[in-house]
Amino acid sequence: MSPKKLDAIVFDMDATLVDLGGFVEWRRAHEEIVEAYLRYDCDPSIVQECSAKGLFNMLELMYEHLQKERGQDEAYTMQETVYNILGEYEATGANSCKLMDGCIDVLDWLKEKETPLGICTSNSPKSAETALKLQGIQGYFKVVVGRTVDHPMKPHPAQLKKCFEELNADPKNSVMVGDSHKDIIAGKKLGAYTVGIPVYFTRVDLMKEAGVDVIIESLNDLRSVIETL
């Protein structure tokens, strides 16, 4: 990491800046998406197999399956459909979300430093916009890249790469901050300095395995990390 001024800092959103996931009815969303696949005449055994791997893994696996079985156009349409279903649940939850500890303080400090900030989230663009507006922090961020069919979700680096590009930032002189090993993997693939902030469901072992540069307890500790870069 160069000692010169950072090009940008990109944050994950849920469980990093705001607690959104705690207010989303994930189980109901999962069930409704499974029903959507079945209505689309997807093989029930394939749907069940993918569903057992968890909601977000199911979305990726079913998209890959549909691309092979139905072709890109049909797969894309179906993926948009299930993303929209999930997005409605996320947007509803966003109305009740809360800021993570230390969020405003660190954002104010970074604003004073004139460090360009972005968000790269696996949540829907609509839920991200709702959460950021309601919590009064939308104005801190120049770029917000949410979940779309066009860019695979983290740990694939496509979303994060798009975020850095829109910030006109070199990832190798930038920082990625997140609560998941998937954030770390995406950041490391692009050469960014990575900061992990584990929460109760974080697999810290996988975060370390991914090569995280530093792990901190909360956003309150981020300032001291940035000051050393």
Plain-language structure description:
It is a single chain. By secondary structure, this protein is of the alpha/beta class. It folds into 2 domains: 8-20 and 97-227, HAD superfamily/HAD-like (Rossmann fold, 3-Layer(aba) Sandwich); 23-94. 49% of the residues lie in helices and 11% in strands. The strands form 2 sheets. It has a 6-stranded parallel beta sheet with strand order 5-4-1-6-7-8, sandwiched between helices. β4 (117-120), α6 and β5 form a beta-alpha-beta unit.
Low-confidence parts: none
Domains counted in the coordinates: how many? Answer: 2
Q: What proportion of the residues is helical, as a percent range?
A: 40-55%
CATH architecture of the largest domain: 3-Layer(aba) Sandwich
Level-1 CATH class name of the largest domain: Alpha Beta
Shape: globular
Major beta-sheet overview: 6 strands, parallel
CATH superfamily of the largest domain: HAD superfamily/HAD-like
What is the overall pLDDT average? 96
- Classification by helices and strands: alpha/beta
CATH topology of the largest domain: Rossmann fold
How are the strands of the largest sheet arranged? 5-4-1-6-7-8
Number of helices: 10
Multimeric organization: single chain
- What distance separates the N and C termini? 7 Å
Brief characterization of the structure:
With about 230 residues, the protein is an alpha/beta fold.
Features:
single chain, 229 residues, alpha/beta, Rossmann fold, 2 domains, six-stranded parallel β-sheet, two-stranded antiparallel ribbon, 10 helices, 8 strands, 49% helix, 11% strand, globular
